Amino acid sequence: MTPRAFFPAALTLAALAGCGDDTPVRFTEQDAAMSDVAAVDADDAAMGFEAPPPLDVRPADGDTPGTVLVYAHSDDTLYTVDPTTRMVQRIGMFQFPTDGNMHSMTDLAVDAMGRITGVTEDALYTIDPLSARCTLIRALPVADRRVFVGLTWLPAGVLDAGAEVLLGGATDGSLWRINATTGQTARVGALPTGWGISGDLVSIRGAATYATVRRTTGTSTTDTLVTLTFGSSVQMRTIGEVGFRSLYGLGYWRQTLYGFTRAGELISIAASTGRGTRVSMPAMQFSGAGVTTVASIAPP
Hints:
By secondary structure, this protein is mostly beta strands. The chain has a single domain (37-290), classed as 6 Propeller (Neuraminidase). The protein has one helix and 20 strands. It has one helix at 37-47, and strands at 70-73, 77-82, 87-93, 107-110, 116-119, 123-127, 134-139, 148-154, 165-170, 174-178, 185-190, 195-203, 209-215, 224-230, 234-241, 247-253, 256-261, 266-270, 276-280, 288-290. The strands form five sheets. Strands 3-2-1-20 form a four-stranded antiparallel beta sheet, with no helix packed on it. A hairpin with a 5-residue loop joins β18 and β19. The longest helix is centred in the N-terminal third of the chain and has 11 residues, at 37-47. The radius of gyration is 18 Å and the shape is globular. The two termini are 34 Å apart. Mean pLDDT is 81; it is low at 5-61.
């Protein structure tokens, strides 16, 4: 993966717990106790997690525990996080076809039906959530190619009244509509001058389109959570500083965002304030994340 241009290269990496096999490991917030450990353990046993359950998300399922998974990834490996338990599951390394393209995943996005679209520096892929197998959709056109470090599906009604739209964000703050069939891109706007996409975008029906951004000048050392709205121009509203840097992935469930840092941290982020709390360090690095556009917006 091409690094975000305005970040220092030196990063502290954490060892991956359980990376030698696929044994799931429970992670919980450091400042919160489990309120019902027995019930959670029973749910885990019922769900198994030897392999993650298939994701079949319909609009009514967004509030149902177990039907929504947050997907995260490094450059070469796919993970899931169950937002009800914060359990991290390693699915496996991406299995790319022999297609001559670069095979370092920069981000992924999940639509309302749970279908995963991934992007590398030069191509779009579908990703099988059970095996991490990647199928080429289309190479990105060379003439207008750029590295999309942030990717999300926008719910119907955000940019297109009748359909979901795939949106990519570049480090320079420009935002692009991506045709998921042809790979063609069209600029829809940009962040205000002086801001760039630090890592990711995630858009949730009935909530907002969120982004982690960073000033391209100045001395700020942490990322900021913002919301974006689309009209004749892109409007950005600042929620607050997260308190962590290099948030390359974003997920969401029940008014909490989940951030994934390049240093391998899983962060819970309050949607109302933007303040982040470290949950765990389950991987050596993260490069992106995503969740279905119909994830629950109910109170926690």
